[in-house]
Structure prediction request, 469 residues.
Amino acid sequence: MEFSTKAETLQPNQAGALLFVFTEAAQLGHETAQALARSLEEGQNFTDTKIPASDGLQAVAVLRLKDFDRAALNKAASDAAKWAQNQAQVNVELAPFCEVNAPRVAEALAAAFGNAAYRFDRYKKEAKPAKFETAVFHSAHADKVNAALAAAEAQVYGQTLCRDLGNAAPNECTPEFLAQTAKAEAEKLGATAKIIGKDYIQANMGSFWSVAKGSTQDPYLVELSYFGAADKTAAPTVLVGKGITFDSGGISLKPGANMDEMKFDMCGAATVIGTFCAAVKLKLPINLIAIVPTCENMPAGNANKPGDVITSMKGLTIEVLNTDAEGRLILCDALTYAEQFKPRAVIDVATLTGACIIALGHDVSGVMGNNQELVDSLLAASKAVDDKAWQLPLFDTYKDQLKSNFADIPNIGSPGAGTITAGTFLSYFTEDYPWAHLDIAGTAWKSGGEKGATGRPVPLLLNYLRNLA
Prediction:
């Protein structure tokens, strides 16, 4: 899909579908658009029709905005996107909006258009791609709108990559596939990539290796680097993503129902890869590193057992009480690995706990960390793009739930506050830098009839990185 701008109002003979965005009907100069606008009932934002044209029928739609809050914009844009995905070309009229609101509206619409047009059908005999190909935004503030469209295009690019990786079947999206895809995508955009194999992991990352060793698939540690800041030596921001390409639970085997969805347990990694590539595509003036530990969690004769004691890269010993609490075991070594970069901040992203769904549902990601300024920045970025997140506490008293008679810490806490005790576990490995943890177990994918990866929280993280620029 392509987005572009024109510094002119929509012409009466403009080819393609027409979308008029407005706040008051009097702002519209198109006769059909005025009639549609006046037909809107209270609480209705969108309607459309078709009118005769030289080559048949032309689609015309109107979208009424009452609020420029991003949540309201996203909701309105989603309504328009359902219609737009069935049009080959859409011309969007933004004449009623000033230089502040025109780019905000354009960015929300473009992001919604891109996500509505997403399809994942590469395993199907007959693919049915969206008809949507191009969107042209007409505004007197073309330069500012064009910058907003570039941001939206990068976000859609990152979300599409994230969703493609998440939706891929686990027999295709193995740890090697995930690592090689991350490397290829990063290098295609001009960034650098390094893939570290199992020999290093086995020798240096005992916690990570303890999870990986039960699978016939080799584990990998992926390191992506981009130095876009004027000072290439400035401390980088580091993103760390959990890359369990399939999670059976290991010896603590998961129930069989819906276990197919455990292919989505690498959505933290997919988010980090998508966000990294989106930031590079935008050429943000920042230094950025992405770290992805990736492996499978499988039952086997040599797999982790409840009661095993393992040694992490940091030197802390861990008692494995539940092999299905494996994400934190690979993340803790990746978070220790991140220390070498002397980061300005580290943000890890993981489908870490089912408890997060109990606490926050499927629309809100959980956030916690050891640095309130960093957490506040993530929450502000979340609100600005309506990629919802909520802070959970990390009081020292939660450490009382992480006691082991046989090791420094166990990999699960005593009952209650499961999301927070998982974050507390990670906090033992992040004491040397500002750190935040995003638990996306409820937001990374949808189940049921809409089953599939969502591409969240790429919008949140990309907006956070844009704010650093």
